[in-house]
Amino acid sequence: MNDVLKAVSRRRAIYPDRFNNNEITQEQVRELLEAARFAPTHKLTEPWRFHVLMGDSKHSYADKIKTFVEDKTNKPEKGDRMKEKMDQSQAVIVISYQRDPRERVPEWEEIAATAMAVQNIWIHTQALGMGGYWSTGAPAVEALTRQLSLEPGEKILGLFFLGRHDHEPRQRPSKSVDEFTTWLT
């Protein structure tokens, strides 16, 4: 197996309850975001946008999101869980995309390009001894949409919880190529 396929096959969701408290620096997060730059993007719209929450800002937004989620869902445990995930993470990357104002490409292509940028980040976490996962919880996304200064046409797709961990990711069962491929020869 070549190095690229090996890296792709080892990508796993690592949840915040598995993170240790080892520090992640802003420069290390910048390196992850550097990997995002190389995602495919039709018409070079580069729609991905990231808002990085670290340190005091992460804790401040965790409190705001907790309150919003509790009020929105009327379920305090949901707010507590979201705050706990943020507190356990060394950084939280808010994933958004910016719709091309000229709409030169369909919106789904910009969402897909953003997802590919996140995949690049996710794969590169391994090289830096980190792990993470992409969460798309609607109440948290709505809370951040109201609280962050987004550009016109910018939409949040979720949060990427980032941290260091000491766990060996579990093997993931997956279908064989022939189970999801139709060969037309």
From TrEMBL:
Its EC number is 1.-.-.-. The keyword NAD applies. Keywords: Flavoprotein, FMN, NAD, NADP, Oxidoreductase. InterPro entries: NAD(P)H_nitroreductase (IPR052530), Nitroreductase (IPR029479), Nitroreductase-like (IPR000415), YdjA-like (IPR026021). Binds 1 FMN per subunit. Residues 9-163 form the Nitroreductase domain. Gene3D superfamilies: NADH Oxidase. Its cofactor is FMN. Belongs to the nitroreductase family. This is Putative NAD(P)H nitroreductase. It comes from Membranihabitans marinus.
